[in-house]
Amino acid sequence: MSALKLNLHVASTADDLLNSRTRPCCCSSDIESLRGAFAEDGFLVFPDAIDLCVVSDLQSKLDDVLTDPLSSTQAERIDPLGLPPTATRKKGRVLQIINVHKSNRKFREIATSPELGRLVSKLAGWQQGARLAQDQVWAKPPGAPPLVFHRDSPYFMFEPDDVVTVWVAC
Q1: Which InterPro entries is this protein grouped with (predicted)?
Q2: N or C: less crowded end of the chain, CB within 10 Å?
């Protein structure tokens, strides 16, 4: 089994995205520049962080998690109608799976990546490191209604209240 390799050496800030460019983030001056942009804009994009073969594998594994009845005992599922995943997908509803890392090794490799944790710590300015609070998958089938803009921070009751979320789009 080989460890997951992430490509976190190229990033884009909001300004970079507007100007169709990327920037390196491999030395401390690059990280400081990205950290300033992260503090200012609230986000960064790492366009090729995950190899396309891994993305394809994750998509396949997600299908397994959504359709395998044994997976439902390993991951908490939130579905307001109480429908099984296949029924939810057929109706075009968004499905949220919390702590999918408990159901699948590939998702666990990303959620618990030391490399990703170190980068988050550096960007947030945390000397003590980062800790995973939870992971989740949002499976949004074609035709499903949009997810509305919202803030999650009122639901986080952390002390101190500094939280960073990492989104992986596949």
Answers
A1: Phytyl_CoA_dOase-like
A2: N
